[in-house]
């Protein structure tokens, strides 16, 4: 009888211990060759669009629920897609210069999810630490997951990352040379 009670007690203790262990997150690698980041920046006289490549990335899941993510972006791949020829080269060179992203010194930008909240089926509100030019600031955005694809739109205030060139908030009398502080990123991921 004592042996039976002891065995039952062990089974309960180990059963409870096993049942309360956290489920291991499954990390899914982002397919960098088929995933895209498109940017759009605005100025008084219009806008510019382009792309930048994902260097590496993972999304973490608990079953089919998004729980985390981590990404690195190769800032040296920043290109404009709305221009051609000399204008394209000038804009890309300027964006990579000290006036903007300083890609020679800061070749990588990163994003690490710090909080993920489900907002409905396949929809999440994500807060993450975005690092650009070595400066880390929080950003909040929505992510949608469909099968092995994810999409997100992120609005970024460039001045938070010491990118103040032609900002109306820092320079007066810019007129039609003013570049708006916020730019948009549209992210399409495959994993």
Structural class: alpha+beta
Number of helices: 2
Question: How do the strands of the widest beta sheet line up side by side?
Answer: 2-3-4-5-6-7-8-9
Question: Percent of residues in helical segments?
Answer: 10-25%
**N-to-C series of helices and strands:** HEEEEHEEEEE
Residue-averaged pLDDT: 90
In the predicted model, the low-confidence regions spanning at least 5 consecutive residues are: 1-20
As a percent range, the share of strand residues is over 45%
Rg calc? 23 Å
Secondary structure: number of strands:
9
Folded structure, characterized:
This protein is an alpha+beta fold and 191 residues long. The chain is 16% helix and 53% strand. It is built from 2 helices and 9 strands, in the order H-E-E-E-E-H-E-E-E-E-E. It has helices spanning 2-20, 85-96, and strands spanning 26-29, 36-43, 46-62, 65-80, 108-120, 123-132, 135-146, 149-157, 179-190. The protein has an 8-stranded antiparallel β-barrel. A hairpin with a 2-residue loop joins strand 5 (108-120) and strand 6 (123-132).
Brief summary of the model shown:
With 191 residues, the protein is α+β, with helices and mostly antiparallel strands. The protein is built from two helices and nine strands.
List the helices and strands and how they pair.
Blueprint: H1 2-20, E1 26-29, E2 36-43, E3 46-62, E4 65-80, H2 85-96, E5 108-120, E6 123-132, E7 135-146, E8 149-157, E9 179-190
Task: Please describe the structure with a list of short key phrases separated by commas or semicolons.
191 residues, alpha+beta, eight-stranded antiparallel beta barrel, 2 helices, 9 strands, elongated, TTHA0802/YceI-like_sf, YceI family protein, signal
